[in-house]
Amino acid sequence: MGGVHGVCYGMLGDNLPSRADLVQLYNSNNINAMRIYSPDHAALDALPRQRHRPHPRRRRRRRRPQPRQQRLRCRRLGAGQRATLPRGRHHPVRLRRQRGAPRRRRGDPPPGHAERARRARVGRPRRHQGVSTAVRMDVFANTFPPSSGACAQVYMADVARYLASTGAPLLSNVYPYFAYRDNLRDISLNYATFRPGTAVRDAGNGLVYTNIFDAMVDAIYAALEKAGAPSVGVVVSETGWPSAGGFAANVENARAHNQGVIDHVRRGTPKRPGVLETYRHACQIRRL
After folding, report:
1. Which CATH number is 227's domain given?
2. Segment Disordered: which positions (predicted)?
3. Is residue 286 in a domain?
């Protein structure tokens, strides 16, 4: 798998193999990390000890909890993870679904999930387990050139500073496919799929980009710096390219992108060299 740390395990679909068979598939292909989308007991029980590092996600609740409910939920978060996670290295638990970019006015109180996360950290089960959130690229603005990246809404700066205070990374879903599909005039297929032939210089930082994946990640780093959280790391919690079912969605492009990710992320980005923790989406064949 090269620099890619793992593959997302989507559990929704038809005719899916058993949890145990999927874990065996990961092991047989030397995939050492798995991102899961809920604390699924069957999947967690099938994981070998000290091998996989799952990203469990708490399901979103529709009702706003009252103080007593809040306390009970935080207890469930801690106790539930202690009961379900196998011993080994684990990464942050997500409190919310993937965030888009809702409106929030300046001066509004910080988002409630940050306070829930702060309370949930009390008595958290493992040293390597924290609390974070996953975001889409639309929570960032001015992403071209990458040095101009900024938070699109005030709340995102609050989230960034909270993560800086806890030492947790920001989980970000980075899909060059959507950037290419939605901007054919300015983004070439080669640039989107790690193929050679394109070099873009960022006049703001002097760095040269040969693929849009790097440019998108460095725009996130620039936004975190502008939010006052330069120490926050980025984990690419999802990336991928569809092999069917959409514009430019075919096996050749999917292979070029996915192999490019595998070969590339061990080097990091022009702004942040070093291994970039990345999770390919997904183990099952799905349409984006």
Report:
1. 3.20.20.80
2. 42-130
3. no
